[in-house]
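User: Fold this; tokens only.

Assistant: Input:
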Amino acid sequence: MRKIPTLDGWRSIAILLVVGHHVASALGNETPLTWHGVMGVDVFFAISGLLITSQLLWDGHLGRFYIRRVFRILPPAAVYLAALGLLGLASRSEILNCLLIFRNYANPGTAGRFTEHFWSLSLEEQFYLVWPLLLLGSGGRAPRVGLALIAAVCAWRFYAWWYIGLAYMHTDQRCDGLLWGSMAAFVVQEGKLKIGQVAAAVALVAAALLWSVPVFFPFVPAFLAAGVLGTAQHPEWAFSRFLDSKIPVWIGQRSYGIYLWQQLFIFAPIHISIVVKLALMFLFTAISYRYFECPLRECGRRLARRAGEKSGPSGAALPLPHPDAVSLIIGVNK
């Protein structure tokens, strides 16, 4: 699969938003501006939906997909949770909920500060378990299925918001963020619809302005996905070039490790400057990325290649959507 431009840069923006929000919270200096750092998670959702759906459409092999995901996600998360257990900063039930990817449905009263960010990881992993199978089952109807799921999630969230209560961390009320990223992947594959620079900028500004307004909740994930899609389609834009420059790419490539460990470094009960804590966090995650994450990812890639060779033509492969499927859905003329 060819590398999709700007995604590492978007990861850097997402993780810096999250870190900024948590630093402000730790310092007791939260403002409406820093609260918007929570939107970094929504950016991660858009990126993840676009990336994993693109991988599945390009490769179409479930076995290889899951091998790569396991080696990418689980070992670093397990190390972080083991560290919490050794330091006595998380209970057994917290750690178990995280390992069983159930943290976003766990009783908030039983969850502590150092594992609360696993809600988004649990949500994404639950999505990884279900969405590829729906792609496999729906084949050329996948874009329609995705849009139908988005409509169902938005309708259910509206009902729950009024009659049950908005469950911000629940997959059934938040997975439209990932699904809009998946819709962007179909657009990338089909290649006919192009997001213009003005449209992408307006979408991103609208997402930032409307993010905290409940009535616009269904539209924000679509705006974010459109903005990410626009930069991915147009790497020549000035903003796209910035996203693909050295520093954003460096941060973005290490964003998963930073996301895992920032909670511990920022909120650790140690009386040292927050600047020192952040410096140690970036140093630690850089070392972990170089000597732990990268070797594991390469191991996962090798095993995935072997799995593909062994399965041969009979392997579990995804039927790709019809080339005109996205055009039919969104009404783009040939």
